[in-house]
Amino acid sequence: MSSITVSRKAYDTDLVIFDKDGTLLDFEKTWIGIIGELITALGAYTPLTPALKQRVQDALGVSVDDSRVDGNGLMAMGTFAECTALLTYCLYREGIRWDRAHDIVEEVGAAVFGPESRKRHVQAAQGALDLLSMLKSRNIPTAVATNDKRADALVDMELIGALGYIDLVIGADSVDNPKPAPDMIEKICSSMGKDPGRTILIGDTVMDALLGRNAGVMLTIGVSGIVPAEELARHMDVVVTSLRDIT
To answer: Could you list the residue ranges that cross the membrane (predicted)?
Structure first.
């Protein structure tokens, strides 16, 4: 059987592509802790004023104290390069020369976004491994399309025990244009010999919906969480509250 069922409707498919953060990974449990470490690490280079702490969180679209992520913000929708640029600006606002601010962000990012930090914080989303296992048992190929770096995405998938279920991982650094351009899906489908018109995309943000639409996939499934279900429903073909709703 090469089909999945969502909202009591079965869909025959040749490929399922997942977003990573907020879809296969629990966004808040993974990234709130990492961003907390990032803010602390910046304190080794410049005083952690209340203004700087707030500026960093506002730039990224997160609130560490409230464990909240803005589903329309930078962490949810942006690329690593975009995060680097805005964090550099945050330090520049503190009076640090731009080139030095950029170097600090690169140094801090290499540590805070690296494997050791990820080991402490990365957590699978509810139902992620069960769904991947089910798709594997039905011989439905799977892939990951993320605006994160490919190497980091591979680490994350290994940490949650998902790497053995996934056939291909593509990051923003794997293509010329990140989401919402269709490049990631086009590269995945070309590499795997699959038709986008027979492909299902599962994601948790409007960016994922636009990616699927621009690539001409058969179906987009939205997982509500950091973006409310009613907002996702305006962009996705189907919306679920958990990956467990997909059978």
So the answer is: none
